[in-house]
Design brief:
- α3 crosses α6 and α4 packs across α5.
- The chain is mostly helical.
- The longest helix is centred in the N-terminal third of the chain and has 25 residues.
- It is globular, with a radius of gyration of 18 Å.
- The protein has a two-stranded antiparallel sheet.
- β1 and β2 form a beta hairpin.
- The chain starts with a helix and ends in a 5-residue tail after the last helix.
């Protein structure tokens, strides 16, 4: 049973990767091309809650602050975000998305939605509900 499940999950993963490539190749995702997964994740976190610090993002992603600071510098140089000084604490620098950062998030969310829809729409409503319940019980990697 365990081997069968591994095989099925492997097949599903390969289907997702194939669909991922198909959607990416035929889409207009100029800004996503130059970003790594970590960069995209940081931008997504800022979309949901503007004015975060590098330390807050580091805690959210369970990642060393130095790693986040390096990524933030790269994103700032490329024009995806900017730093603004806190009015309450002059030492604190908040991260804010630029217009380019918001546009990139829009591309990312559209791209992600297309992949997830292609996957989810393959199952009926009952199967989707069952899958959602299983995913909700998962342990983080």
């Amino acid at each position: 049973m365990k081997q069968d499940l591994r095989f099925q999950l492997s097949e599903l993963l390969h289907e997702i990767m194939k669909k991922n490539k198909e959607i990416f190749d035929c889409g207009d995702y100029h800004n996503l091309v130059e970003l790594c997964e970590q960069d995209i994740t940081i931008l997504a976190k800022l979309e949901n809650r503007d004015h975060l610090t590098a330390k807050e993002i580091s805690n959210m992603l369970d990642c060393p602050k130095t790693t986040i600071v390096t990524a933030v510098s790269r994103l700032e140089k490329r024009g995806y975000l900017k730093k603004i000084q806190s009015t309450n604490d002059k030492r604190a620098m908040y991260l804010v998305l630029t217009k380019k950062g918001r546009k990139t998030n829009k591309e990312h969310f559209a791209y992600e939605s297309m992949i997830l829809s292609a996957l989810i729409n393959r199952w009926n409503e009952s199967d989707q509900k069952q899958l959602a319940e299983i995913i909700a019980r998962r342990e983080p990697f």
